[in-house]
Amino acid sequence: MAQNVFGAWDYSIMAATMLISIGIGLYFRFSGGKQKTNEEYLLADRNMSILPVAVSLMASFMSAITLLGVSSENYYYGMQFVVINFAYGIATPIISQLYLPVFFGLQKTSTYEYLELRFGTHIRLLASLTYTLQMVLYNGIVLYAPAIVLESVTGLDRLVSILVVGLVCTFYSTLGGMKAVLFTDLFQSALMLIAVFSVLIFSSIQVGGLGQMFEIAKEGGRLDFSNFSIDPTERHTWWSLVIGGMFTYMSLYGVNHTQVQRLQTVSTLKRSQASLWWSWPVLSILSVSTCMSGIGMYAVYKNCDPYMSKSISTIDQLMPYYVVDAMRSVPGLAGLFVAGIFSASLSTISAACNALAAVTLHDYVSSGWCTVRPSIEPWLTKLAACAYGLVFLALAFIAEYLGGVLQAALTIFGAVGGPLLGVFSLGIFTTYANEAGASIGLISGMAMTLWMSFGGPRPTPTMLDLSTSGCAQNVTIRPTPEPTNPNDYFYLYRISYMWTSPFGFVWVVLIGSIVSLIWRHQQPWQRDGHLHPNPALFTPPLAKILRRKYHTDKPAVQMDTVGTKHATLAEE
Question: What is the DSSP string of 518-566?
């Protein structure tokens, strides 16, 4: 499949993408406050407008792996996956009203500082280390995976692709800080949309319009949305996609540091909530159009499937193969597509560099064992951002030798989210949970979700019917895999991956509650000489009850006292 279909226009578009991203980084390095303070570098001085934050929230979530994977998912397994967008709509008000006010009110740079205030230092360190490992592994793959797939489109060596994208991303995110990351996300998101829409529009034109495209998809069984089964072993049902998708979204947008940090770059809680609300339709537009692009490619290849005819070796190569096969006649279109896919990687990695730099400085360096002078904080933070970018590069270069660890790291990303959401929820929604309960709940919950995700052998998902009747006579056809009997496998390994996050959440809340109620010890506010819990550490409905119970009308500020400005922001 590897062939160079790039022309002068394509290379020009790719070069322009990289140069614009670098230019944005340079602009914010030498404008405004010139990134002299950590407040400006990590949180954009908390004065960003709603649009770039909303779009960046989407871009941080949608990586190149997502774009390539979702399109092939709808092609080979049907469009039922689009139901997950309802889950995002259900989760958004929950996060906006119950989780976000707590983090915004405290105005802490690292999300994991909350866990120390609520429970203690050990759980804070455990959670931040878990997050760091998760993000390092995931982003190494985010950088590597598109390079392998897109090597077939550009004809460029995959290592060259990794080097170019990795260095550009590290450069602008290190130099320009959060403002550069947010505005490059805005630019890169536009390219992501163009890439997906180009495939959707081109494929629908090929088959005679959107109506014909959906008609072909319906005949091929791709538009069946009738699976309401409550069986947790079925891969995608309405229940698994809505409930599992809701918990996954809440773990990402409610408590994941990468997203919470972005939500604190605006000036008031209302603006932060508005950013979150606007990110939902932006995400859904990209998600639905990516699902539809998969259906469009199915309509084109209904009689000669590229995977069964061995034109591609994995189903994730479907979209790049389509660009090579069908869109090469339009100058610059392949370049736009590759720029969009690379932009998806750039936005995810730059978000991680900045977020991990914040966690490193606040959770490891300045968490009590080391005092850092304010004048050198920005330099240390930039150094950490640069170091993480280079770590992603190194991991991407060795990723091809890691074999199954690639899928493993992607699984970690999903398996860790549910337990972490459970720990934060224990702190935000209960007053009885303590550090022992939270720690045991998190460790045991992660052990369970990782066992569910990694244990094997497990059955292979069954693809919908594929045809090779229209392929050329000399094409080698891949043998049809033998159907497997699910009952031959251990039940836990048959459970859909969509249930991993809610399972981890329920496990942590349940075990954490039981341990906390049995093994009682002093809460942080008791150790600090306070008679009652600080309402600022709890979700707004519970905080109101605590204020009424303890007759306190104090504003929602953290225990170690923040400025009047921050207290006012939390109340707006």
Answer: HS----HHHHTT-SS--GGGS-HHHHHHHHHHTT----S--TT---HHH
